[in-house]
Amino acid sequence: MLRLSQFPGPVQSLIVDPLKAAKKANEEGESPKGELQDNLLCQCKFYRAYQLPCQHIWQFHLINGVITSHDWTRWASIFGDSGFEIYETTTKTYAIKEVHSVIGGPARHMLETREVLDDIKTRFFELDEMTAGFTPEQKDRYLMLWVQNLKKMTGQIKKTTAKDALKQLQEEGLVLTREAIEEVQDWN
After folding, report:
1. Quick check: 127 and 146 in contact, CB under 8 A?
2. Cα(19)–Cα(42) distance, rounded to whole angstroms?
3. Residue 184 gets which letter from DSSP?
4. How far apart, in whole angstroms, are the C-alpha atoms of residue 173 and residue 152?
5. Are strands 36-37 and 41-42 parallel, antiparallel or unpaired?
6. pTM for the full model?
7. Who's near 66: CB < 8 A, 6+ residues apart?
8. What is the mean pLDDT of residues 103-127?
9. Which among 59, 102, 142, 144 could disulfide-bond with 22, CB atoms 3.0 to 4.6 Å apart, if both were Cys?
10. Contact by Cβ (8 Å): 103, 29
11. String of DSSP letters for 16-83
12. In the 8-state DSSP scheme, what is residue 6?
């Protein structure tokens, strides 16, 4: 039984909108898509982002009646202590805390690097979702090729040493202290 009152207001629409989409899809005769796992977990972008029933879970439920009161309790417990703030704080706060925990760390560069890495992970999940219609072998091969290409592109970055970066900075005319140069040379 759906008990929306267990959830903060903004979350209620996050629950109802996929339900409406699932009802419409079922009325139009669409079969449920997505990869549901045990305990009603889905691999779609919506479920990964919000940890709430997505259109795929709703479609499956409307056909098979699989959502139980235990599932609602599990989903509602996410908001028990923090309410809707769980979505507002999950990534940004933790990213900032990690940056500030590094003494003397270059915050802007660390944030930019994290952003690039997050974009790559997001792209992987988008590709994973886009290949939902592939056979398991096709999907595995496609994603394997994507990861291989990613490794090739990042391989050069991993090969670049601190000494290489220091040399490039000096060629660009950046003046470094002797201590900074010695510290960079000790990194390799």
Report:
1. yes
2. 15
3. H
4. 31
5. antiparallel
6. 0.45
7. 40, 60
8. 74
9. 59
10. no
11. HHHHHHHHHHHHTTPPP-S-EEGGGEE-SHHHHHH-S--HHHHHHHHHH----HHHHHHHHHTTTTTT
12. G
Specify the residue for token string 């500030």.
100
Nearest to 53 by CA among 39, 82, 121: 39
Give the CA diameter of the chain. 72
DSSP 161: -
In tens, the pLDDT along 87-108 reads 444 443 333 444 445 445 455 6
AA letter at 97: K
- Helix 92-100 crosses helix 107-130 at what angle (to 10 degrees)? 140
**DSSP symbol at 135:** -
In the prediction, which pLDDT does 109 show? 67
Q: How far apart are CA 82 and CA 101, in angstroms?
A: 23
Amino acid at 55: Q
Q: How far is CA 75 from the centre of its chain?
A: 19
Long-range interactions of 56-65: CB distance < 8 A, separation 24+: 56/22, 56/32, 57/18, 58/18, 58/19, 58/21, 58/22, 58/23, 59/22, 59/25, 59/26, 59/30, 59/31, 59/32, 59/33, 60/32, 60/36, 61/22, 62/22, 62/23, 62/26, 63/26, 63/32
